Amino acid sequence: MTETWHKHDMDFLGGRRLRRSRRTAWSRAMVRESVLTPADLIWPLFVIEGHNEKTQIRTMPGVERLSVDLCVEAAKAARDAGIPALALFPNTPDHLRSQNGAEAYNPDNLMCRALSAIKSAVPEIGLIADVALDEYSSDGQDGLVRDGEVLNDETVAVMIKSALVQSKAGADIIAPSDMMDGRVAAIREALDGEGFEQTQIMAYAAKYASFYYGPFREAVGTGSRLVGDKRTYQMDYANSDEAMREIEQDIAEGADSVMVKPGLPYLDIVRRAKDSFNIPIYAYQVSGEYAMIEMAAAAGAINRDGAILESLYAFKRAGANGVLTYYALEVARQLGK
Ligand code: PBG
After folding, report:
1. Is the CB of 137 under 6 A from ligand 1?
2. Cβ count near 20 (within 10 Å)
3. 2: pLDDT confidence band, cut at 50, 70 and 90?
4. Distance 209 CA to ligand 1 centre (A)
5. How confident is the model at residue 223 (pLDDT cuts 50, 70, 90)?
6. How far, in Å, CA of 30 to CA of 18, rounded?
7. Residue of the nearest CA to atom 6 in ligand 1?
8. pLDDT of 124 above 80
9. Annotated catalytic residue within 119, 207, 230, 316
10. Any atom of ligand 1 within 6 Å of the Cβ of 142
11. What is the CA radius of gyration of the chain?
12. Is the beta carbon of 130 within 6 A of some atom in ligand 1?
């Protein structure tokens, strides 16, 4: 039996048909509101010791930890693809982790060697150095721990030293990811005092205590150490006003740009921040978000490439000036074609 459709009398539309502009590819291109370019993408890299060494991360299929020489190669590829900056995270060898996190300010630590190797081989790319103690401490917390308490001011004192060795090694942007109070002002003052007036600070201003960081903790080797959670310093996922207060404070303390993290589940915060403050706002598509796309795609549930681009456009639509994403190189290359 053949179906027949009858045209309904749509006079009430009065000629207003929003689908008109979506009918053809040229028209969709013409009305598109957001753009994504390689300059929007910041690429996080995990650094390990060794030479010509790469290791897999079980919970982040497709992402590898790289030795310093391979980070240099990655930096060249990133530069050639138009990526403006890299964000580095060290996987510090176990025997160098300690309760006082002293490796964080060893001028010859893995992070500093990676920064200076990349800076001298690929001076055109920006280098973002994460400052927090979890990558150096035996506790897996972002700060110093005494009697189960994560100390604020004592942690800030160590972070200053860490930021200084990183700046000397070649970091262009210091990115405190720890959520201690007052660290932006303290780092700014220390940098200025040592002649690093041009070193920027990208503050992880609204960083939530999130379950989406799991794969990252495997990548940098902190997950198995962490006892408890980070809720005494990272934010409660139920809050939004508080994020505005954190951002306001970091701007007042001298941040050059701020970050919202995680990304996709927190786009309301990105949009609200964009509407409230006149400062560049970055969002971090974190490891758990990456894993969700990869694993859903591997299970045949979603179209991988389509979902990746959609997720990155969503950040732009929400008002982000850029996105830290493990997809940066792949997508920058694709956009450049
Ligand atoms: C720690 C840090 C974390 C991430 C970046 N810096 C994890 C944490 O706070 O436990 C997460 C990034 C990601 O999940 O991709 N200073």
Report:
1. no
2. 10
3. low
4. 10
5. confident
6. 14
7. 177
8. yes
9. 207
10. yes
11. 22
12. yes
Q: Please indicate, yes or no, if residue 31 is contained in any of the structural domains.
A: no
Note the pLDDT of residue 224.
Answer: 84
Question: What was the pLDDT predicted at 9?
Answer: 85
**1 in a structural domain:** no
Kindly report the CATH number assigned to the domain that includes residue 322.
3.20.20.70
Distance 178 CA to ligand 1 centre (A): 9
- Quote the number of domains for the chain: 1
pLDDT at 292 (0 to 100):
98
The average confidence (pLDDT) of the chain is 96
Whether residue 218 has its Cβ less than 6 Å from ligand 1: no
7 carries an active-site annotation: no
- Distance in angstroms (rounded) separating the CA atoms of residues 153 and 63: 35
Q: Is 166 in contact with 87 (CB distance < 8 Å)?
A: no
Choose, from 76, 119, 168, 261, the residue flagged as catalytic: 261
21 part of a folded domain:
no
- Tell me whether residue 60 is in a domain: yes
For 257-282, b where at least 16 C-beta lie within 10 A, e where not — what string? bbbbbbbbebbebbbbbbeebebbbb
Residue 213 Cα to ligand 1 middle (Å): 6
Q: What tens digit of pLDDT does each residue of 280-289 get? A: 999 999 999 9
Domain span including residue 87: 36-335
pTM over 0.85? The answer is: yes
